[in-house]
Design goal:
Snf7_fam; transport; cytoplasm; endosome; membrane; 82% helix; mainly alpha; single chain; Helix Hairpins
Length: 163
């Protein structure tokens, strides 16, 4: 196999090749590293732009050629900075999408576990037995209420009592 075809067919670490791709945590870590690197490059370019602008001001009308060269470099740095801004936006969007999809996957997995647990809990329950049990409970509550009513009624001992 040629180097070019190997490059396009298989890039990535040996650990991720065995599983069919990187884990979400690995991908998120790499995206964060890339964001960090691009942010540092942004800061570097911003300082370079400020330096070139200072050089252009310093030379001003005295050395127009040096001032123009500084402004051209400044423009080139600004173009690179603009490209990095767009790249950072894309990476941030991709990272957020990956975080959301990872969260959704975890939620779905946990919902599956909960469904299995509910199934296991309910497999020993029979609706007919539950219905019978509920009827028994209702009957016993009725009996308890009748007993409570009988006890709470005042007994009439007054006039019929004989000494």
């Amino acid at each position: 196999m040629s180097k070019i075809s190997r490059f396009f067919k298989g890039g990535g670490s040996a650990a991720s090749k065995g599983r069919g791709g990187p884990s979400p945590q690995e991908a998120l870590a790499r995206l964060r590293e890339t964001e960090e690197m691009l942010s540092k490059k942004q800061q570097y370019l911003e300082t370079r732009i400020e330096r070139e602008l200072a050089v252009a001001r310093q030379h001003g009308t005295k050395n127009r050629r040096a001032a123009l060269q500084a402004l051209k470099r400044k423009k080139r740095y600004e173009k690179q900075l603009s490209q990095i801004d767009g790249t950072l936006s894309t990476i941030e969007f991709q990272r957020e999408a990956l975080e959301n999809s990872h969260t959704n996957t975890e939620v779905l997995k946990n919902m599956g576990y909960a469904a299995q647990a509910m199934k296991k809990v309910h497999e020993n329950m029979d609706l007919n037995k539950i219905d019978d049990l509920m009827q028994d409970i209702t009957e016993q509550q009725d009996v308890a209420q009748e007993i409570s009513d009988a006890i709470s009624n005042r007994a009439t001992f007054g006039d019929e009592f004989d000494e």
